[in-house]
Every structure is written in structure tokens, then in C-alpha cells.
Amino acid sequence: MKIAFLGPHASFTQLACSQIFPENELIPQSSILDCFNAVINGEVDKAVVPLENSIEGTVSMTLDYLYDFAGIHIETEVVMPIEHHLMIHPENENFKTIISHPQALAQTFHFRHEHFKNRETRDFNSTAAAAKLVSENPQEKWAAIANSYAAKLYGLKIINSNIQDFEQNHTKFIVISKKDHLLLLNIPKTSEKTSLLITLPEDHAGGLHQVLSVFAWRQMNLSKIESRTLKTGLGNYFFFINISNEWHPILSENALEELLSIGATVKFLGHYNEYLLES
Ligand SMILES: O=C(O)C(=O)C[C@]1(C(=O)O)C=C[C@@H](O)C=C1
To answer: Which residues form the Prephenate dehydratase domain (predicted)?
Structure first.
């Protein structure tokens, strides 16, 4: 089986991916979009992408592509602790620019503001891609924010450790594929959930209330609801909803039917387990 992940090697996504799929062929991609495309085009069987961080919130690109790509399902979700370090090329200790993935830069904002306020920052495709870039360009005055495995793999020197702004820093990653398949890992699950993407019926007072009541009176427990712009004009949104109950086929089928009958559109992303991984 071939598994795509947001690479290159030593990205956080790879650390999660290699714990989920220790025996499979892991194929690095340079963006989250490439991970989705690799699944849709059949180049790989599944892909692992980040979905949400406990400090910075949702990875918007992943949410957008879950909506945009027809036929994508979530097979499982894993949560992994995230520790960021500031690293430089050992032969060039001066740095003017800090490079990393936007999520990592955001998760370390207060650290950077306190210690390196005047250094400019540059967004890059992943933390590991930033570390690789610094390692390949010793002549540049660059530092990267990435994990300790990236520092080791790309020969960089860590100058500040554990620079995330909050001690508790976790990122959720999902396994996506074209199959509505439940992927079970060999460790105890932490929870079970169902994910849906919903657009409301035509704009009218109480539209969202009507949709939420479909779940409320069936005692389906919503653990997350997030709105995201549809990009068709200001004020137009889709909703990402997680239901935390166990899966009751009849109750759930009825709920989906009722949502359709009130004019909502519903995309079922999957019913799956959540697991906690090591860092
Ligand atoms: O840049 C990486 O190493 C990634 O795997 C991406 C990513 C993310 O998009 O959230 C994953 C975990 C951390 O939250 C920071 C960056």
C-alpha cells in the first residue's frame, strides 16, 4: 500500500504517518493539495494530512479540500504532541529570517515576539522543508522552526528548544482515502466520531437552528461545529460538524434524510476512531 504525506522527511506529518503505517511505502508530497490529488488520481491508496492544532486551530486548506474534493473520506484521526525548536546551520550562526510552516510560526508567535521581534519570517510548505532549505543554503542568514528529528536529519543546530507558546500543543492528523473504510490501529482508541460537511438551506431566520435541531432531538452529541467560507461571496459558509456518539445506522440515516428534506446539502466524510500517538 502507498501512503502520501505532507513532506519532506521529518515533517510532523511524517512522524504521525510512520506511526500509523510502519510497514508501508510512504511517499512525500510538497503540499496538502498534492496529497489530495495523489489520492484522487489513484497514485496512492491513502494520504495523511494535518487537520487541526490545539493552539492555532483548523488547517484551513485541509478543511477546504475536504469540501472541494468529491469522494474523499476520513478513515481515522490521530492526535500527536508537537514540540517546536529554533535551528540554524552550524556554520552560520547569524540569522535574519526565520522560515517555517505558517502553523508553526503561529504556534511560536509569542516566543518570537519576545526574543526575536525584529527578525522577518517566511512561510514555507512544511517545517521539514524549511529545515532542509536552511541546511542546503549555509550562505544565507536563515533559521528554521521544526522538530528535533528534522534538526538531526538535516544537520542543523538547535539554539532554542520547546518554543511553542503553550505547553499543551497537539495536532490532529487525518487519514484520507476514496473508500468509506474504518481504519483500526493497534492501540486503544480515545474516541469515536462522525464527520459531516453541511451547507444550510436557503438563507432564512432559524436556518442553522433547524439543522442543529435534527441532531439535538435525536440526542446526537455535537463535539465540534466550525464554519468556513464557501468563497462564493461574503456571508456564505459551509459547516464542518463532528458528532461524538457511537454510530446508530437507523438514527443517523434518518437524520441525514431529515437534513436533506429541509434543503441542506450534506457530505458524509466518515465514521472513524481517534487515537493518541507519541511525539
Ligand atoms: O510542517 C509540518 O511539519 C507539518 O507536518 C504541518 C503542520 C501543520 O500543518 O499543522 C503539522 C503539525 C504542526 O502543527 C505544524 C505544521
So the answer is: 2-178
